[in-house]
Amino acid sequence: MVALFALTTALLMGLADFGGGLLTRRAPALTVVFASQSIAVVVLGVIVVATSAWQEAGPRLWYAVAAGVIGPVALLSFYKALALGPMGVVSPLGSLGVAVPVAVGLAAGERPGAVQIAGIGTAVVGILLAGGPELRGAPVRRQAVALTFVAAFGFGAVMTLIAQASSTVTGLFLALFVQRTVNIAVGGTALAVTARRGRPVLPADGGLRVLRSSLPLLAFVGLADVASNGTYALAAQTGPVTVAAVLSHLYPVVTVLAALIVLKERLRGVQAAGAGLALAGSVLLAGG
């Protein structure tokens, strides 16, 4: 089951990132984050009420609070790094957040077998190559690299924290609700500060009309993102964290393939090789 939950996480995260990338072409990144997460909070609130999940409130929810604070910082750092570019370096480096949950798993005493170690190494190399790293061209700005590492650590930390925030499915609903509520509190504060400073918070061309027309995609991004956190928590609770983390971080491959199919972007040779290695690594991990 760990492979199924982890690969579902990769699929959801990859599609959410792709949808978020499309949305940030129409609206400021902070507005996209706030709007999509707000939709997710409403849906999660309904689920929490319907399942009486609030009855499982306890000290472990502090992990969800921490994840809620870190998440927006990581996401905005990632978007800022993408703006500074080059994207071909920033995107694959962002997946290095896999080191956080893997380190946690090893610290907890997990010892992958030889086949799994080979799978981890193969998959990580494939993930990095699938992003299409730009080995030539403009130098990478130091600020972009620093922001990317902040984002990568943040993404890995959020996945690790949310996996610790509950031990039951209904408790997971509550943990995700708390996490996303904190997300929009942090994002809403940042949005208010941005507006007060006179910076744009609505699409320059179309304003609220563009946001209204984007509601279906905003809903998909918000719900896919929160669902990916949930399926990762289930993966980490049903199998080795090291395996769950690496398989979950195959999401850049999904994003690349979505761009190939939807936007008709060309798949570079290094990306095709990376996708193949990532899939080979996932087979080794699932079989090991």
- What distance lies between the first and last C-alpha atoms, to the nearest angstrom? 13 Å
* SSE topology string: HHHHHHHHHHHHH
Characterize the main sheet.
none
Instruction: Summarize the amount of helix as a percent range.
Output: over 70%
> How large, in whole angstroms, is the Cα Rg?
18 Å
Count of helical segments? 13
β-sheet strand percentage: under 5%
Q: Give the total of domains.
A: 1
Low-confidence stretches: none
- Got a strand count? 0
- Overall SS class: mainly alpha
* Overall 3D form: globular
The pLDDT mean sits at 81
Protein name: EamA domain-containing protein
Family: Belongs to the EamA transporter family.
Pfam families: EamA
Domain EamA: 3-130, 144-285
Give structural notes.
The chain is an all-alpha fold and 288 residues long. It has one domain (2-287). Helices cover 77% and strands 0% of the residues. It contains 13 helices and no strands. It has helices at residues 2-23, 29-51, 61-84, 87-94, 99-107, 114-130, 142-164, 169-196, 208-213, 215-238, 241-248, 251-262, 269-287. α2 (29-51) crosses α10 (215-238) and α8 crosses α10. It is globular. The two termini are 13 Å apart. The mean pLDDT is 81.
